[in-house]
Amino acid sequence: MPLFSSFTKPFASAGDQAVFLGHFFRNIFQRGFEWNEFLRQCYIIGNKSLSLVGITGFILGFVLTLQSEPTLKAFGAESFVPSMVAISVIREIGPVIIALICAGKIASSIGAELGSMKVSEQIDAMEVSGANPVQYLVVTRILACIIMIPLLTLIADALALIGGYCASNISNKVNLTLYFNKAFSSLSFTDLIPAVIKTIFFGFAIGFVGCYKGYNSDRGTESVGVAANSAVVSASLWVILLDAIAVQLTSVFAYN
Amino acid sequence: MNDAYHDNNNFLCEAPSAAANDTVIAICDLKKAFGDKVVLSGIDMNLLRGENLVVLGKSGSGKSVSIKCMVGLLTQDSGSLKIFDKEVSELSVTELKMLRMKVGFLFQSGALYDSMTVEQNLEFPLTRVLKLKDKNGIRASVEEVLEGVGLLDAINKMPSDLSGGMRKRVGLARTLILRPEIMLYDEPTTGLDPITSREISELILQMQQKYKISSIIITHDMACARITADRLLVLNQGKFIAEGNYEQLEHSPDELVRSFFK
């Protein structure tokens, strides 16, 4: 029997998630969208993650430049540093690293918040009063993640380029206009658009997993920690999985 | 088991129409289990209009489960649970929502939304459930119910700034703001000092008289039971084992029933 239940558990969980997903989509289009709560969540997710994401983006560009510059210098190709940093950060490293950081910060906080609301019966209280907790709590948070995580990624990408410029200036005096001309001349919309599209999916995965884990947590204070922890693990896994799919799709459709 | 208990409840299962006018909740052979653990093993009960019914029982005896089935937070495994003559398990989502507007539920912890002020907590059901838009009308309703529970001063406070008794009062006000016809109280005095417990119990009685509410009060606080109860039921191991008023059960021949009153 335990063997059977361990075999069926992942399927039951997938079924629960599909039902939860159905609730989310059904409630997006229902009357009475919670605009105030949506804007509050955008503020919380965007504003409170901005410093962490900004610092990470800056250091990402800074370190990438410091690491790659000596190698490219050996081949006499140090003028390609801005292009290399821009392409690698905007296409791949920026979206994935920022999404993983957001999985740690945002998915865990949503999981813990909804988990504690579940434990303290606040979600039940909303439900028995006749209000719609999915519309108020879940729809607003997932949509806020979908909007804010691409914006945070774009900000981090910009700061990564500035970080790269600062790192280049340690060894050589590089003109700011020249650096950014070099960086942007190598970029095209086929680099930026797929990257932005995949961050929308990353945002959805982070919001959805955080909400699902928190909303369906067990009773008891321990389950709040479990919800937060499993939200981070699952969201990170989804980010990496979605990135692998996005890279495949992008290489087929965008670069051919 | 008390004979009066059998006599009173048989009509619910067999001829509901006879007393249907005065019966707001009618439960017949309700069963609920979680996995192998049977919590309710076939309970029968009724709640009459305007009545305060107290359900006594040890922790884990299934008291809270029974009232959570009444508002659709849990679904019974079998048996009949009718509120206003409608079978709860057969209601559509919209019908359940309509029913929940008539049935208030006070949670043990108060279950206040901790990211909102007291005023926003009370506005929440008005704007989301009744879809009210008039800000002055909403403010007047909030002030009226807060005054009713004696907490008008706390209107701008956050739940974290309130004591346990105040949280329960605000929780009660948030439930009463929808003017329910039935109130379900889940251990309303648990964790409170004797003075605050008495205040909450008297408040329950006042609300019954002021708004003509029918109530089920789940408790093991005998002081609360004595103040609020018109009738008491004793739940043990998933079954009701006795019914009567406070004095009758205090002198019950059943040792277990009497033990609640010691």
Description:
The complex is a heterodimer of chains A (256) and B (262). By secondary structure, chain A is mostly helical. Chain A has one domain. Chain A contains eight helices and no strands. The longest helix of chain A is centred in the first third of the chain and has 40 residues, at 35-74. By secondary structure, chain B is of the alpha/beta class. Helix content of chain B is 41%, strand content 25%. In chain B, the strands form two sheets. In chain B, strands 6-7-8-3-9-10 form a six-stranded mixed sheet, with helices on both faces. In chain B, strands 2-1-4-5 form a four-stranded antiparallel sheet. In chain B, strand 4 and strand 5 form a beta hairpin. In chain B, helix 5 (118-128) packs parallel to helix 7, helix 6 (135-148) packs across helix 7 (164-176) and helix 8 (194-211) packs parallel to helix 9. The radius of gyration of chain B is 18 Å and the shape is globular. The two termini of chain B are 20 Å apart. The relative contact order of chain B is 0.17. Classes of the chains: A mainly alpha (256), B alpha/beta (262). At the A-B interface, helix 4 of A face helix 4, helix 5 and helix 7 of B. Chain A: Pfam families: MlaE. Chain A: Belongs to the MlaE permease family. Chain A: InterPro entries: ABC_MlaE_roteobac, Permease_MalE.
